[in-house]
Amino acid sequence: MRYPKPARRNRKTNKRLARLLPSETARGDRISNQLMFVPPNYETIKRKGKLKTILLYNGLSPWNVKAGRDVFLSSKCPVSTCSITAQREKASTADLVLYKDHYIPPSVPRSPYQIYMMYFLECPYHTQHVKYPDVFNWTATYRKDSDIVAPYEKWEYFDPRIRQVEQDRNYALNKTRKVAWFVSNCGARNGRLQYAHELQKYIQVDIYGACGTFKCSRSTAERCFEILDRDYKFYLAFENSNCKDYITEKFFVNALTRNVLPIVMGARPEDYEASSPQKSYIHVDEFGSPKELAEYLHLLDRNDELYNSYFKWKGTGEFINTYYWCRVCAMLHDEASFRRPKSYDDINEWWRGPGVCTNGSWRNFRARNPEKPLVADSR
Asked: In the chain, what are the domain boundaries?
């Protein structure tokens, strides 16, 4: 990790130049900005020895961290003067009260200078509907307009100018089967199973698990992925919901770490474009129907050169550690965030409001709402 210097300020306004919050920039996820942020007076803060207290209100076990400073010191955070606790009696004095997936109102008074943050791992369809208004100051989710963006994975190029390189292998070689899908949830609300069944009418789709006729247990998952690598050209990386920025390990781990071309359904096409290596997948919304998609897959199956063009991203970058706890600690030392803490009037409106998710395809959503923009990338 490259250790940053203390943040610079505007000489006239004395405001920090680093853009850390979604209200300060509509571009990107600000992960690097937050990770590299060090307050101008950090040396003084360290000498005083005062730590920022982070209360994990749902306990330590959901986070897989220890109480104290261990996670900040072991990660060699640029800003490490924070300490974690799960003692709820500290709810009135903690600098940050952090919830994971479920909000429980504290039984003690709240200070106006505290930050309350909600962390959601899953999409809106599978998370709590918070009934209390004006509770949260920050959010931590996979969405890029969260205050602390916590993606399932983050891709970074070694050199942003080099996004495609020639490969010295034929990724189609010896692959005899077309499309595979490993799935256990047969009732996803985005209709992914129905889409796969329609696709089966026009191209071979082998469905493994509870929703198909091919068997692959979790205990033999690695062997199943070896079969995927060896025999199949395409993999359905279908999420269980079509929601903004919702891209999980189904794509990043199950697909991109393998030598197979993923076909994706879930987030909007522009979300995949912003989060993925260039030309590393096919989005179902690029096609008007499963039949049209199947026709293109047959074309790729016949044309090794075209098929291999989807693998030229390999070797151009890597998935990186986003150092979530380091960024949380750094943000707690940002004076601007505490001077006038913002709050979400209704976190549900932001998290699950119009345009965040759709039961159908994003293509159809836009057709039904030509004048209605999707949720903006910043508040």
From this structure: 22-151+323-356, 156-318
